[in-house]
Amino acid sequence: MGNQTNNQSILEAYKKALRKNNFEVFIVENHEEASLLFFDQILPKINPGIISWGDSMTMHATGVIERIRENEAYAIIDTFDKTISREEQIERRRQALQSDLFITGTNAVTEKGQLVNLDMIGNRVTGITFGPKDVVLFIGKNKFVKNLDDAMTRIRTISAPLNMKRHPLFKAPCQVTGTCHDCCSPQRICNTWTITEKSYPKGRIKIILINEDLGL
Length: 216
Known about the structure:
By secondary structure, this protein is of the alpha/beta class. The protein has eight helices and nine strands. The strands form two sheets. It has a six-stranded parallel beta sheet with strand order 1-9-7-4-2-3, sandwiched between helices.
């Protein structure tokens, strides 16, 4: 009970900081509740015509993409379709920036309510910062950090190396050592940093804080 109460107070503190920065924020206990909240409250309010998403293990854990695919009411831009070429995937990632709703996660969130992300191509961070009319981020409590330095350390020593291991066809030294080498690999996934201080316009970025460790 003590740990649960402590977790709730931490979640509330991050919610307060994020709301101060003009993000719309929700708190749920687990990924199942996150999915229910998304479909019962957030999606009907946005009422999007076109939906796309950026890669996020936390987002995938909720199962929302599978449910969206099953609903013919929405047009989707699937930028991860394995039946098309890499060039076509990149072109779809450009098109995704014109979607009504973009769904993904974040690499870290600070106590001041800043979102910190690192991308290979930049489609995920671009979708967060500009383009889609609305953005929904699923964030597990393991993404909580104290400040920007801790956020970057977390990304370099946890998120990026583990993400590289998910892509065995890519090659970089962090796959072996588990930490960033600031490498020069042509398949390096660490190319573009973003720090999102505030949501603009207010409420455009909606955040679901999940009281579980999810994703990378």
